[in-house]
Design brief:
This protein is an alpha+beta fold. The chain has two domains: about 80 residues, Glutaredoxin; about 100 residues, Up-down Bundle (Glutathione S-transferase Yfyf (Class Pi), Chain A, domain 2), CATH 1.20.1050. It is built from seven helices and four strands, in the order βαβαββααααα. β3 and β4 form a beta hairpin. The longest helix is centred in the middle third of the chain and has 31 residues. It is globular and about 45 Å long. The two termini are about 20 Å apart. It binds glutathione (GSH). The site of glutathione has 12 residues, from α1 and α3.
Length: about 200
């Protein structure tokens, strides 16, 4: 059985759980308490030298990087509705997942982290304001796209799953998402998918 090293508060790990649950794949969760530094344990670092969750272990195969895991899960259980195989859709899925990893997550996950999980030094306030402002810019890009599209690429796919976690968690970083009507409808559509699980399930 697949093993997913994760933590209930990790948006990056939640991506894999969303995909696996949607596809009805059984997996075992292994909790890594990143708040206690368990990611630095040499046994865990042997799985991911970057010392971060999520890590997916499939028998003798080990993988890390949350959005790359979505490609693996999608391909391994293909054909399935989350993983479009034609060249254009595949390219667009990669486009959104890379946008997620380079623009959405760095800003929205950091805004959430600095707001919710640490006591900030006064000099970090400016940094936080920058993450919130850049995060809003990424939300606007998504919202504009979603005005004419139900999902990021065709039907519900791993592209949506990769971008959704830190978008729906943005209010925890005091980033307003309710001003983006199309984005809010997209969130509702994702939450009504048959295999949807909330982050705390
Ligand atoms: N680029 C990585 C980032 C993973 C990441 O930042 N994971 C966080 C939890 S959401 C973590 O392990 N933090 C512990 C640390 O950075 O020491 C991915 O997408 O998988």
């Amino acid at each position: 059985m697949l093993k997913l090293y994760d933590h209930p508060l990790s948006g990056n790990s939640y991506k894999s759980r969303l995909a696996l649950n949607e596809l009805g794949v059984e997996y075992e969760r292994v909790n890594v308490d990143v708040f206690k530094g368990e990611q630095n344990d040499p046994k865990f670092a042997a799985l991911n030298p970057n010392k971060k969750i999520p890590v997916l272990v499939d028998e003798d195969f080990v993988m890390w990087e949350s959005n790359a895991l979505l490609f693996y899960i999608g391909k391994k259980y293909s054909p399935n509705h989350l993983y479009p195989e034609d060249a254009r859709s595949h390219g667009l899925v990669a486009q959104w997942l890379l946008f997620g990893k380079t623009s959405i997550d760095p800003n929205l996950a950091m805004a959430r982290y600095l707001t919710r999980f640490v006591s900030r030094e006064p000099q970090e306030e400016q940094e936080l304001a920058k993450y919130r402002a850049h995060g809003m810019m990424t939300l606007k890009i998504l919202d504009d796209h979603l005005k004419d599209n139900e999902f990021l690429v065709g039907d519900y796919s791993i592209a949506d799953i990769g971008c959704y976690p830190y978008v729906h968690l943005a209010p925890e970083g005091e980033v307003d998402i309710e001003c983006y009507a199309s984005l809010m409808s997209w969130i509702e559509r994702i939450q009504s998918q048959p295999g949807y699980i909330s982050m705390d399930e």
